[in-house]
Structure formats: C-alpha cells, structure tokens
Amino acid sequence: MTATTLEERILRLEDLEAIRDLTARYADAINKGWNGKTVDPDAIPHIFTADARWENFDGEVTHGADAIAAELPKATAVVQFSMHTFLNPVITVDGDTATGNWLMWVGSVMGDSPRSVYMSADMTYTRTDEGWRIQSVLIGFGTMVRGSNGGPA
User: Fold this and answer.
1) pTM of the full predicted structure?
2) Distance (Å, rounded) from C-alpha 118 to C-alpha 84?
3) Which of 15, 18, 50, 147 could form a disulfide with 153 if both were Cys (CB 3.0 to 4.6 A apart)?
C-alpha cells in the first residue's frame, strides 16, 4: 500500500462521497411517478459534462448533456413510475478522473405493468471547475422480473 498524506486521504474520501452524491442526483433526475415527481431534464447539465456520452446495451448512444436532457422526456414518456437505485459501487479515483461500476435496480410501471430490472451501469467521471460530473454512462444488459396479475414484481 502506498503511503499517502492525511490531506490526500481526506481528498479521496471527499471525492468518493461527491461521486456517490452525483450518482444519486442522477437517479433522482430520472425518477418519476410519486407525489407529483417528474423527470428533471434541467438537472442534467449539472450532472453530466457538456460532451458526455450515454449508451445502453442495445447500442443506443446519445452524445452531449443537452442531447441527454432533450432525450429524457421522450425516453420516459411511456413510463408511469420509475425508481432507480445504484448499488454496490466499485469506484476508482485517479486524479481528476474516476470510474464507477454499479449494479442498477429499476422498479417501474409501464402500461400498468409493474416490473423490476437489474443491470450494470458503468460510469466515468471528470472533476470540473463546478465539481464532479458524469462523463459517460454505459448501461449493460441485465434481467427483468415482471409482476403477475397487476401485483408487485
């Protein structure tokens, strides 16, 4: 193990916490459906870098925070309810960049059908003058569980 100063260790802990907080704010921005909660495209420029990249396992790619924000309402139009949770992060900080490998759970209702989806979410992060921002998101293939007879998934 490399010896580090107290300041370096504190900075690492602050960076890890800032990245966790940023990822939670991303989840909040894309959640919808309870107590009047809607998706929040206006939050995206404060979460992503201007040149960010968002990609899913189907190869769908969106480039730029503005494009991600514009796509969000369209992408979630058929979703009545969604709650995103990012779990079990493995976060590596290297100066002003970082990677985060997350397990993502999404509980949702689409077409009155409840479902749960479990996937991977691999993210890169960049430290900016405004703080940490998401540079890229890659959503990996996972598994879906659907509720039966309208009951919980």
Assistant:
1) 0.91
2) 10
3) 147
pLDDT at 139 over 50: yes
The residue-averaged pLDDT of 72-84 equals 94
Task: Find, among 49, 53, 63, 67, the residue nearest to 129 by Cα.
Answer: 49
pLDDT at 43: 98
β-pair type (131-139, 48-56): parallel
User: For 99-118, what is the mean pLDDT?
Assistant: 94
How deeply is 100 buried, as exposed, middle or buried, from its count of CB atoms within 10 A (0-12, 13-18, 19+)?
Answer: buried
Please, what are the domains in the chain?
A: 6-146 (3.10.450.50)
